[in-house]
């Protein structure tokens, strides 16, 4: 297991890109938690906290594919770093003005989400230029998912530690400064500066003209909703069982479980159809969300969150392979950014819906949302199984380049339409 991962990390620039992206994405990954805690500290309601987190997520959803397309067209440094600076500045405005003016609060949160740099999609576009073999790229996707779960495990603890030592306001500011430094580390690296997207076919839909990608995005909208709903339900549970520290441990438990699952998943090469494998993984994900409704004591509840998170990273890693398989040529950053966007929209919907749910029915009904959302995701994957399982060899494969070694397909478009 260790040998496979070390082989990837020994590749030149791989560790720097992975760690830099991880740090650069910290503000985005912790924003829903940080916003909820900050609004609570300001005396706001759960509904206001959920709606502000949803506004951030929805704005992020709009910005990611737009910025991703700009990255494909203009390169990474000219887009990623300015976006990171603007996002951090907007979040600083929110931190200093608070919820006294809802117009300013909504506007600042929306801008922070809108300009969040597409570092996640950018990293997946870079893997193929850093790693020499396709199996290494696929394993890097699993390692990438594992690294994200390290962030999801550590991020909530960082938010709660900053909040406990200083304030929720300080947590917002510190995390965004760290995020800018991470983005800077990535964009000044040689692979990021040298990377260029492969030539693309002219079409206003961009990556969304792929039916397989659309099907995958529909499924991950529900997966994101499941994760986002836990964020709000766990706050309600923690208020009755020990406060912010318990909340941090519950969120870290989800990340720890996904970390363990992702490490195990990426340790081997998987045979068979990835679309079918994703159905099985999502089914298990939905089933293991259900025990959260038992709501035992904090220690047992933390263990349940660990178990609930085990299949999250494998689902994400398997989805990366499918995105790489179905993305039209020349839209790789945009395609991965759409997956990020859809997941973020789902998480935002989860937080937005679960806020009123827990106010009306308590944490029990809040924890019912993730299991139901997981079931919806499974239904989407089952209904679109034929689309996702279409072999890549049945589509027209354009000639590749050193920046497009995965030979992403361009279905149903001819070279006459090339921009």
Plain-language structure description:
There is one protein chain. This protein is mostly helical. The protein is built from 18 helices and no strands. The protein has helices at 2-9, 14-24, 26-41, 46-74, 77-97, 102-114, 119-130, 134-165, 168-187, 190-194, 211-239, 244-266, 274-289, 298-309, 312-326, 332-361, 363-383, 385-388. Helix 2 (14-24) runs antiparallel to helix 7 (119-130), helix 3 packs antiparallel against helix 4 (46-74) and helix 13 (274-289) packs antiparallel against helix 14 (298-309). The longest helix has 32 residues, at 134-165. The chain starts with a helix and ends in a 31-residue tail after the last helix.
Keywords:
mainly alpha; 18 helices; disordered C terminus; globular; 419 residues
Q: Given the C-alpha coordinates, what overall shape results?
A: globular
Low-confidence stretches: 392-419
Tell me the Rg in angstroms. Answer: 20 Å
Question: What's the pLDDT, averaged over the residues?
Answer: 82
Helicity level: over 70%
The count of DSSP E runs of length 2 or more, i.e. the number of strands, is 0
**Strand residue percentage:** under 5%
* N-to-C span: 44 Å
| Quaternary structure | single chain
- Please give the largest β-sheet: none
- Count of individual helical segments: 18
From the helix content, strand content and strand pairing, which structural class follows?
Answer: mainly alpha
């Amino acid at each position: 297991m260790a040998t496979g991962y070390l082989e990837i990390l020994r590749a030149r620039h791989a560790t720097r890109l992975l760690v830099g992206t991880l740090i650069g994405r910290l503000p985005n990954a912790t924003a829903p938690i940080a916003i909820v805690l900050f609004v609570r500290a300001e005396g706001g309601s759960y509904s206001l906290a959920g709606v502000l987190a949803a506004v951030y997520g929805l704005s992020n959803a709009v910005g990611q594919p737009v910025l991703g397309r700009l990255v494909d067209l203009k390169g990474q440094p000219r887009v990623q770093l300015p976006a990171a600076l603007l996002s951090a500045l907007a979040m600083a405005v929110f931190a200093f003005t608070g919820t006294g003016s809802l117009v300013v609060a909504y506007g600042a949160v929306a801008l922070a989400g809108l300009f969040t740099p597409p570092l996640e999609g950018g990293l997946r576009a870079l893997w193929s230029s850093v790693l020499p073999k396709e199996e290494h790229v696929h394993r890097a996707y699993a390692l990438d998912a594992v690294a994200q779960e390290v962030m999801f495990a550590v991020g909530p603890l960082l938010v709660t530690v900053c909040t406990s030592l200083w304030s929720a306001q300080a947590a917002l500011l510190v995390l965004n400064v760290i995020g800018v430094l991470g983005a800077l580390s990535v964009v000044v690296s040689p692979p990021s500066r040298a990377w260029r997207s492969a030539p693309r076919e002219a079409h206003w839909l961009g990556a969304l003209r792929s039916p397989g990608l659309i099907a995958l995005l529909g499924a991950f909208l529900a997966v994101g909703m499941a994760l986002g709903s836990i964020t709000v339900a766990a706050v309600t549970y923690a208020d009755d069982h020990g406060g912010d520290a318990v909340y941090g441990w519950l969120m870290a438990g989800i990340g720890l479980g996904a970390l363990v699952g992702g490490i195990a998943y990426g340790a081997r090469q998987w045979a068979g159809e990835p679309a079918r494998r994703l159905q099985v993984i999502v089914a298990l994900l939905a089933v293991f969300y259900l025990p959260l409704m038992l709501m035992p004591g904090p220690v047992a509840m933390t263990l349940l969150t660990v178990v609930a998170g085990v299949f999250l990273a494998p689902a994400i890693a398997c989805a990366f392979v499918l995105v790489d398989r179905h993305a039209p040529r020349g839209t790789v950053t945009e395609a991965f950014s759409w997956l990020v966007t859809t997941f973020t929209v789902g998480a935002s919907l989860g937080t937005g819906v679960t806020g009123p749910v827990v106010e009306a029915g308590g944490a029990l009904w809040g924890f019912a949302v993730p299991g139901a959302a997981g079931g919806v995701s499974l239904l989407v994957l089952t209904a679109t199984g034929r689309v996702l399982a279409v072999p890549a060899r049945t589509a027209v494969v354009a000639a590749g380049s050193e920046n497009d070694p995965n030979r992403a397909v361009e279905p149903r478009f001819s070279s006459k339409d090339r921009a």
